[in-house]
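Summary for the steering committee. One of the milestones for this cycle was to obtain a three-dimensional model of the protein with copper (II) ion bound, which we needed before selecting residues for the alanine scan. The sequence and ligand used are listed below.
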Amino acid sequence: MGKGWCLFFLFWPVAAVVSCAMAPMVGWSFPYDNAQAASNLGIRIDGLFYLILIVTAIVFVGTQAVLVYALWRGVNNREERATHIHGNHKLELIWSIIPGVILLFLALYQMNIWADFRIKKFYPEVAVKDPIAEVTARQFEWRFRYPAIGKKLQPKPQPDDLYTVNELHVPFGRPVMIQLRSDDVQHSFFLPALRIKQDALPGLQIPVWFEANKEGVYDLVCAELCGWGHYKMKAHVIVESEEDYQNYLKNLTQQQFYDGLGKIAANENDSESEATEK
Amino acid sequence: MSVVHPSPTGLQPILKPQAHHAPGNFITKYIFSTDHKIIAIQFLFTTLLMLIVGGALALAVRWQLAFPWESMPIVGPWLFSAEGGQISPEFYTMLFTMHATVMIFLVIIPILAGTFGNLLIPLMIGADDMAFPKLNMLSYWFMWPAIVCFGMSFTYAGGPAAGWTSYPILADLAQAAPGSGTAQTFWLLGVTFIGFSSMMGSINYMTTIINMRAPGMTFFRLPMTIWGLFITAILQAFALPVLTAGGFMQVTDRLLGTCFFYPSGLVINNAAPTVGGGQPLLWQHLFWFYSHPAVYIMLLPVMGMVSDMLSCMCRKPLFGYKPMIFSMSAIASLGFIVWGHHMYTSGMNPAVGMAFMVATMMIALPSAVKTFNWTATIWGGKVQFNTVTLNCIGFLSMFIVGGLSGIFMAAVPVDVYFHDTYFIVAHFHYVLFGATLFGVFGALHFWFPKMFGRLMNEKLGKTHFVLTFIGANGTFFPMHFLGMQGMPRRYADPYLHGYLEHLLPMNQFMTISAIVMGLAQILLFINIFYSMFFGPKAGRNPWHATTLEWTAASPPPHGNFDVTPIVFHGPNEYAVQNGDRDFLMQTEQECEPPVSQAPDAENQTDNADTDNEQESSS
Ligand code: HEM
Ligand SMILES: [Cu+2]
Ligand SMILES: [Cu+2]
């Protein structure tokens, strides 16, 4: 019977390893069919993830194997008494120092990624100079405010700003930055495809930058409980070429300021001058 | 079952005049009792009752995730006849909020500190009772106002709606959600009451352990269980006031209009902008300053108990007794400076995130050391697969998974992706459910004879273990994959989002596993109530264990010991040569050389039955 129990405890780590190994094949891994992250930083985050996965997998297999083996030996122990031993200094030093070194390595190794992601000093300059939009979360939708074409995003809304709800367009191939805020409760700006997540805190404006590296329509969801409708803060981020992006902004301007007579009501001079330039 | 009645040999009996004095009538004996053992039993039944409540709430949450918007079986039509028995998003929010609240505040914390802390501390250190028996009684009775408050919050519109973390603004301003009104105030009051209860307990435990140890019981002779409970009590005493203060601030924000946690100018539900000047991040810091240590409050006592149980069931001294104590202390002290790892995405200063990250990585180290030490304790032992052992191994194998998934989240950049997804839910269920509850089940089987004088049924116990273990892994392991695929937690309907649509079958599988696990608990309850009355009589020391509680009668009378025990050595002396036994009680003086140094020379006679001949001195 004791051996049966050993097999019982052996089964689970094996099942865990098998299902993890299967995961990428059956689409249980990162979203969008295990696709690589759609941002360069995201790819580095994935790299760190896989590194930790390898380390933990080795530790997991090792500890579970030793555990089951120790149990196996233990039930078959024909000695009259177990070994009388209180510890072993050398052994304990070894198994404190080795994991210590590994953990310290992991801690230092990831510093760069984190710095590039969140420490303002390391933000790409182009993105910081010219935030593309202000993202305002509220119960239960995402609102976006772009500056008028050719202008810069101002902290306060401007008369010629462009607005959309639940659909954010961004160009790929260059770092962009948004200003994240919330009107009411806490929300969290979560772009799974890009491995981006940042809480929106009422009262704060938090700059978030990312660089999408391929076209696509990605889900933008809310990751911080924000009330009963939390699950339905459904929006999309449309990553498109620079050209499509500019066209989108133009169309948006036209729609928004169409005065019903075929003219662009506000901001007329700006868009005209741009048209003549081309 | 052969029973040993060891006698404290070689010492002068110190007669205790108060021993066996009869406690008054039924009310003072069983209800307003000041006897730590009765209080432990009161805690036990209350927390088990709450386990049913919390489990039912969990199953309701899982029902929604497997069969979204379908009528809830059994209770649905009765609860929401208007909506056709279907769970509303508001109700779903209430469900997971209360599930977590009940499990953490009314099950895990009180079952560890309340039940096992109360039962074991005086018994294992050789004291008659707690230092402050009346305070002890109060700490149990303060659970009830908490239960009533939590119960009240169900009855107000929406129920508490902000999750067990109670983040402002959602929890702070009544207009933020239907459930953020009076229900939330009651919820906060409930947390405050349960905080009082824990606080009284922890003061009592600290005082008792420091002052009331039996002669000879030095700190480094304390059983690991006591170390776990001791360190927990210290953690509790330092961390809890911060939560209580924070909760109080939230209550004044709600009732008196102080603005600790909300800034000015919010437009909530199209209502007028708020006045303010507060900062929601402040709450997160206060909350996690308690709630991070709290996860160790929910784990350290179990670590201690498992150390003692494993050592006994493998008939081997604990491997590395002192390193185990030091790593526990390291976990506890590091536990105080890692609260920020719950806040990597919160918008706090990112440079601080790095410091939290390094500290968090380091906390993995003592946990690893503990795991290795437990494994080494099994290594070379004589393993007996009874229910206690099985649950300890269950603890160990689930703790390994939960500990390793913690490393992903300690890594800030990776946590950015996993935070608030099901990966987190997987992680803390492996630790809280997997590790803690299996440890508790093991401890219940192990100390049940001391509580009720009878042994639990092995067949039922093993079946319960197997079904729970299968159910737990089936429920919680796939959560890692849900997290990988980016499924956020606290979603009433994840399938609304294109990239999560395909997750329904996986969620259904998990729900079925959860139901199996839920049903398995019926076996536990049958076992407890059956064995309490009809289980085989246990005798003083059914497990041939070494610590002081096993020198007392089962169950021990008021005042615990016939004579004050005197302690001669550390707690886990197994595998020694001691007459015909392989263990040495802490009260036994003679210590012959261990068998490993005197091989084969010993007699081959099987002494199992002569154990019965030994008589206790009482
Ligand atoms: C029958 C066993 C259990 C099942 C099936 C279960 C299931 C669940 C589910 C489905 C959630 C909701 C996740 C979400 O949407 O965010 C949840 C949350 C949670 N559970 Fe459990 N659980 C069980 C036992 C426990 C235990 C024993 C604890 C002990 C402490 C616990 C603590 C929590 C906590 C803290 C949360 C977080 C709630 C939140 O999001 O605020 N659970 N559980
Ligand atoms: Cu939201
Ligand atoms: Cu939300």
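Key point for the committee: Residues A 187, 222, 224-226, 230, 233 surround copper (II) ion (ligand 3) (CB under 6 Å).
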